């Protein structure tokens, strides 16, 4: 599959993962984990390292001496201090952790950016995106290779306009990120719900009934007996999804389903790091307070510099 077809599939499949007919298809969006480690500071600070740096970057710090860890941590602190007032607040720390938590999203955008920014001006216009993604279709609108390009293009344009806050049909990197990953932005969540309902609402009545809900997750595929998880999903729909008990989900009920209000792990971790490091208990951290607790934030396991010393340009 070339880039164009991949992006076309992405535009229709953002809100769910494809699966085999007998496997559950999940449309629910959850925040990615900060770490797969157990959060127990009495045992180790590994969870905190992953949360603060991201799992991959945390591994690189294991190769540094304490002195090098502290030096690089100081550089990171300068980046976290967004307003440059010499203090790191809980809010600034939360923003940094969320960025590390969603690094895979930003990496994905970076990987695609050059494909679409055709004039290399640091922006992506709707025309640039449309020409790259739908150029072949625009040249031959009567082609038939299994994709409904017209429908996809209309849908993409609607989402692009929603992501484009100033309405100039030119996306900054942040706006383009919102276009590619709308579930990550509050102002884009309505479009995620709308697209999801359009995918599932087969009879076009503006609601998702029980059979549409189940049919989106599971295909009978000629088999009479449903798996146990399908029966459970039927119960979930009746007991929890359809809150007003009218036999169908409206937009708000669909939003509650696919975009649940998860526990904010980044906020909890930011609060934890401030609590553990705030020596004078003024509710904010100086660079010195953070570096003094470098073992909590980044750690270090190396005993010498040697060839194991790992450096990354982003720091």
From TrEMBL:
It is found in: Endoplasmic reticulum membrane; Golgi apparatus; Melanosome; Sarcoplasmic reticulum lumen. The keyword Nucleotide-binding does not apply. GO terms for molecular function: calcium ion binding. SMART domains: EFh (SM00054). Residues 68-103, 104-139, 151-186, 188-223, 265-300 form the EF-hand domain. Its main location: endoplasmic reticulum. Involved in regulation of vitamin K-dependent carboxylation of multiple N-terminal glutamate residues. Seems to inhibit gamma-carboxylase GGCX. Binds 7 calcium ions with a low affinity. This is Calumenin. It comes from Dipodomys ordii (Ord's kangaroo rat). The gene is Calu.
């Amino acid at each position: 599959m070339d880039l164009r077809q991949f992006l076309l599939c992405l535009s229709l499949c953002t809100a769910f993962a494809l699966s085999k007919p007998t496997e559950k298809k999940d449309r629910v969006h959850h925040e990615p984990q900060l770490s797969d480690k157990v959060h127990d500071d009495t045992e180790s600070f590994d969870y905190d390292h992953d949360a603060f740096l991201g799992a991959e970057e945390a591994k690189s710090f294991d190769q540094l001496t304490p002195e090098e860890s502290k030096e690089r941590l100081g550089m990171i602190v300068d980046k976290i201090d967004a307003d440059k007032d010499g203090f790191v607040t809980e809010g600034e720390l939360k923003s940094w952790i969320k960025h590390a938590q969603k690094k895979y999203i930003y990496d994905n955008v970076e990987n695609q950016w050059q494909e679409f920014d055709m004039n290399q001006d640091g922006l992506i216009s709707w025309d640039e995106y449309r020409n790259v993604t739908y150029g072949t279709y625009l040249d031959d609108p009567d082609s038939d290779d299994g994709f409904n390009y017209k429908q996809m293009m209309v849908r993409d344009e609607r989402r692009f306009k929603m992501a484009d806050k100033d309405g100039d049909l030119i996306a900054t990197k942040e706006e383009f990120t919102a276009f590619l990953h709308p579930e990550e932005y509050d102002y884009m969540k309505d479009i995620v719900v709308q697209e999801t309902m359009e995918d599932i609402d087969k009879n076009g009545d503006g609601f998702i009934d029980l059979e549409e809900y189940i049919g989106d997750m599971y295909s009978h595929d000629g088999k009479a007996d449903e798996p146990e998880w399908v029966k459970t999903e039927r119960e979930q729909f009746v007991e929890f999804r359809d809150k007003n008990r009218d036999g169908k989900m409206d937009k708000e009920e669909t939003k509650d389903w696919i975009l649940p209000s998860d526990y904010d792990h980044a906020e909890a971790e930011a609060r934890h790091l401030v609590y553990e490091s705030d020596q004078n208990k003024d509710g904010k951290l100086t660079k010195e307070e953070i570096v003094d607790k470098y073992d909590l934030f980044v750690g270090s396991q190396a005993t010498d510099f040697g060839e194991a010393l790992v450096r990354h340009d982003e720091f």
